[in-house]
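User: Can you predict the 3D structure for this chain?
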Amino acid sequence: MRVTLLGATGFVGSAVLRELARTGVAVRAVARRPPAGDGTRFEGDVEWVRADLADPVSLRGLCDDSDALLHCASHLGPDAEQCRAVNVLGTRAAVAEARRAGTRRIVLLSTAAVYGAGPHRGIGTGEVSPEPVSVVSRSRLAAEEFVLAADGMVLRPGLIVGPGDRWVVPALQDALRRVPARWDAGRALLSLVHVADLARLTARIATAPGAGAPPGVYHASHPDPVLLDDLIAALARCGVVERPEPVWSPQRCLAALRDTSGWVSERQFRLLAEDHWYRSGTVWRAAGVEPGPGPLARLLCDGRLVAA
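Assistant: Here is the predicted structure, written as structure tokens:
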């Protein structure tokens, strides 16, 4: 079979590409800047193609002869026009191209951030209405509608960790520098998934024989939530952060965050310091994939890890 993969050089997309190639699936890997730098090249079962979601004309033909479209590309910056061009209009064009080509399976990597401000404690899909608060999250929620209208699947992971992570661990490092304490005793429960496990799940969904998992929205984190204090302790054992001893109330933490300069916003701090976990067992069962030992076990097994 052949899979068209959008965002093949990104954090998650590159992990999905490795998983698909490892299992012998032919991949049309799409990126704005393919590794060859000259448009198209072949390497084993990987065909690299240059295209840009902000330029719908460049998407023409990307899904020809493809059994599945895996959409792992998105614009994550604050520019509203760019978010609309890439995340909304680009997704609309990509889905239209898949439907024109007769591609039978469409899968979009979205984000649990579409739910907006928490805390969220063990919610299932459909139990809380999305209320995105950022430009990026609003545009990614809008993108979901095109995929769902085409009977596709939408995956909403929580925090994604592992080699290539540019947000979770850097955010924890910045927040711990500014708030050197155990935030509310580190009691927050978080939905995490290691990028390699998310790649296994996503690749399986795209390539499963027969009808595969039913269309719709799925939470795509590891089924077991992670305690914030355990996450920080695991990272401390890897030498990535220092685990503080003082215990501060949420109010004192937010005051300290405001008083010390840094890049993590109050909204982002709350994503880490408050409960944000979403029941995710359904998608693993539907795809027939074992979720593995969990993201902390993955991190502790990989000394290079996370900050890479």
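The first strand starts at residue 2 and ends at 6. Confidence is low (pLDDT under 50) at residues 301-308.
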